[in-house]
Amino acid sequence: xxxxxxxxNMGYGSRKEVRQIMKKGMxxxxxxxxxDPAQHVDPEKDAxxxxxxxxxxxxxxxxxxxxxxxxxxxxxxxxxxTVVDLLGxxxxxxxxFPVGRLDKDTEGLLLLTNDGQLAHSLLSPKKGVPxxxxxxxxxxxxxxxxxxxxxxxxxxxxxxxxxxxxKIIHSDEFSEIExxxxxxxxxxxxxMFEAVxxxxxxxxxxxxxxxxxxxxxxxxxxxxxxxxxxxxxxxxDSSKQKG
Length: 243
Ligand code: URA
Known about the structure:
Blueprint: H1 3-9, H2 15-23, E1 27-29, E2 32-33, E3 48-50, E4 53-54, E5 62-67, H3 89-92, E6 97-98, E7 107-113, H4 116-123, E8 131-138, H5 143-151, E9 165-170, E10 174-181, H6 188-195, E11 199-208, E12 211-212, E13 222-224, H7 227-234
Parallel strand pairs: 7-11
Antiparallel strand pairs: 1-2, 1-3, 3-4, 5-7, 5-13, 6-7, 8-10, 8-11, 9-10, 11-12
Helix pairs in contact: 1-2
The structure holds uracil (URA).
The site of uracil has 8 residues, from helix 6.
């Protein structure tokens, strides 16, 4: 890879800015000052440094976000703010995208990455990655609903859902529940409750596969996945090597 591209990809500025830094002899490759922006480097083998600080090369970024309501799970939109708008330049230059969608009014765990292969694995119906949601329901949620979800319910378009595990936390005129499903149909949780005659009034995703929402993240905040979280995710795709 060209040296100016590597530095620019790692957030050290535009290609033009990077070339200016290089002209000043501030970049070294394996200890030698390099001024030629076209010089090829192997990010796996060559040691690149800026004013003595090692430049760590990484291809992929993996972010956990606590998605706030009112923001779209998309990379761009001409009207609404998107989850990518909430990131800083340091993250945005990796061009991450949300893995799956949460509705505009849904909160909670959202993974953003530029690792297409991992995203594909997480979303693949074949993998059936479980996702747990917390919801507040307008209506009394009953053991019959738990049983119905376990059998699978029929959505408004005739689709039969796979079994969902419903845990009733509190059942009253308004109820609180946790629901674990292994699919990701459009508005699935809301439509599953509609199928049993109830309305979701608040929805928050708590988990996705091995990832659990970090409760230290306030609405709209994000952080990189820890090494352990990343290892857990990579297990979903055994052919996947961390890049
Ligand atoms: N199910 C829904 O209805 N909405 C979401 O955002 C996620 C799952």
